[in-house]
């Protein structure tokens, strides 16, 4: 019996012997055996049920926040089409833009800046070199540098003891380490009469003109913009949520800094169940929309089957009866972030 409780308490350090005797972890919905960890429905979180009216209100709010970005994309594409029409000597309304084939799960990105491409872009018909509209505009305006990477910075390695609060190694043992990166040649683009040709280095084929192409169906962005405007104009709810007080109440804030010249030293720190309430949800949303960090308290206590215990995570990754899955999990590397080494 002693060894049984020792084994169970070791696996469930947050539960006492009395709690385990009263209700076992499986009945509590908190079992972390290998079988339960592999179950797709092991984690259950608290959810707030919304009625139809609330769902419509939240959807209209999302549309109102996404609208400025959609409007910016449409404006950028309109200017690009007008510019291309001027080069070809045709009316922008009669412009026919080729649609490039793209699979649903395929990510199209700019070969120069690696930014995801949404719709309109420049593409080489010969080698499929793709360029986003921002890079294309910078090339035309001559605002590109000749190198893609800055010289690699160096830092002094003072040893693992120093990283753990100990003394640094003797200066004679110090070694300089460089961050990955070096000066690499940028592609060379040829520009003529408002056209940009495929670069002569790296990924390009050198010589073929980059044509204006689209990924989405014709007028998809403009039609989506009109639908968003229609939703916002017919909204029965206020699209702007009142701003929360400058200082969150002491029960939902956490001091994170001590700056004398700032009134922003506290972090919003709500309880996981409190966010389910309408007023607290709006409060949470106002902070989240600004990109501010938020600490949600008691998140693990409100869920079932979710644990950050190291041994639980290890079993979830390594204990697999399937040979193929086990071989993949064996390749997972664990890094001690403080020491910077594999463990």
TrEMBL record:
Provide the transmembrane region boundaries. Answer: none
**What does the entry give for GO biological process?**
regulation of transcription by RNA polymerase II
Q: Which InterPro entries match?
A: LSDs-like
Please classify the protein's predominant subcellular localization into one broad category: nucleus
Q: What protein family does this chain belong to? A: Belongs to the JARID1 histone demethylase family.
UniProt organism field: Genlisea aurea
Keywords assigned: Metal-binding, Nucleus
Source species, domain of life: Eukaryota
Q: What is this protein called?
A: Lysine-specific demethylase 3B
Which Gene Ontology MF annotations are present? Answer: chromatin DNA binding; histone H3K9 demethylase activity; metal ion binding; transcription coregulator activity
